Amino acid sequence: MDSKLKLQMIAIVSVVILMVLGLVLLTNQDNVRKQPQQVQTMETAQDNNIMQPASSFDEKYGLDPYADPYAFLQDETFFDREKEEETDQSSALSLLVSTVQKDIRVHVVDGNGALVSGQNFSFKLKKDGKEIRKTYKDEDKDGMLYLTDMESGDYEIVLREVKDYEVPGEPVTVSVTDEISYTVIDDITFLVKSEDEIDATVEDTAVKEAEIDADGTETNKRLEDGATVFGIDVSKWNKEIDWEKVKAAGVEFAIIRCGYRGSKTGALVEDPYFEKNIKGATDAGVRVGLYFFTQAVTPVEAVEEASMVLMLAGKNKISYPLFIDTEGAGGNGRADGLDKETRTAVCKAFCETIENAGYTAGVYASKSWLNNNLDTEQLSSYTTWLAQYSSQPTYEGDYAMWQYTSAGKIDGISTLVDYNVSYMDY
User: Fold this and answer.
1) I need a surface site. Which of 56, 120, 300, 423 has the fewest CB within 10 A?
2) In contact, 121 and 137? CB cutoff 8 Å
3) Chosen domain end from 161, 179, 197
4) Beta bridge partners of 104
5) What is the DSSP letter of 365?
6) How far apart are CA 320 and CA 287, in angstroms?
7) Last residue of a domain, which of 179, 198, 224?
8) What pLDDT digit, counting tens, does each position of 355-411 carry?
9) pTM here?
10) Residue of 312, 315, 303 whose CA lies nearest to 348
């Protein structure tokens, strides 16, 4: 083999070797790409005693450069929110203060909003910046102070220190006026009682004046009058009611008694069937209004009654008016002896407070009561609900509803029930 041929062979072998080496290198690089990268965590670095220098950022904020930033993933409860522990606020006192007319009412409540009773609370008052020397005390320890015949002006009320309690650091202010304020008493809830707290046999003694005045011509049948809306009114006296059956029987509206003022003590009492009745009626699709049997003897008490009604109405869907039921209590009621002027003022105070809160107000009374015990001209702007048990109403004044019998029968109600027609479709 000559030298020229040898050189050609060497060149060819060299090219082949280079090609093989190139293929090997390409194959190794492809395998490296396909293999998962091995990431050395801080924890591995610590285990291998590989020291990582702390950055200036770590030093500035006191961070551990060797901490595993993914350790929180191993904690199953990391994202659970811890429930805040309920703290007892019963020792922190505050004052709820309101006024209607020439009066101041004070309620002492704890941090949980509960009325605090059983303590010897005493109060200091300032009027127009000048301290009143007299100290007022909660004599019956019920957590309430009610002051009447107060002169008009700006008052500051301070609760004196009480052992084991934290009293307000700043006085509570209130402006007393000579004119009645027909506005809701926000803290009325503390005056409302259940029948478990009173003697209902002497407190709930309303007497239907319409039954006394009935002329014997009334009917307990449904009136066939397409221009009117048929309804009933109910209270605890009607016991348990199946409102689905009542709705199916054709009842379109119900005026539900929400409460009454006690005939003897004057306590504000919620009707024990109110919640059941209003929920049952609204769930069944029966439109509702409310009524309250009054025994108020002053306009201020009427504002209290209206405030209670509004408190109970506020969480419910109301379609029909909110009525004050004014009638006798058997001759022994605290309001039975009111003169026409005072009784009219009571009804007006109730209705004004209701209407100022955005509801429609009304007065329920018998024909004789409207004619003899009320000045209806002063009440003409409110809805009148006439009670007259007769074949035809003979009351000559204006009225929007007529209760024409107390002897009605409705499927779903085990007792007799009052029938009503409304000339207004609220």
Assistant:
1) 56
2) yes
3) 179
4) 147
5) E
6) 7
7) 179
8) 999 999 999 999 999 999 999 999 999 999 999 999 999 999 999 999 999 999 999
9) 0.79
10) 303
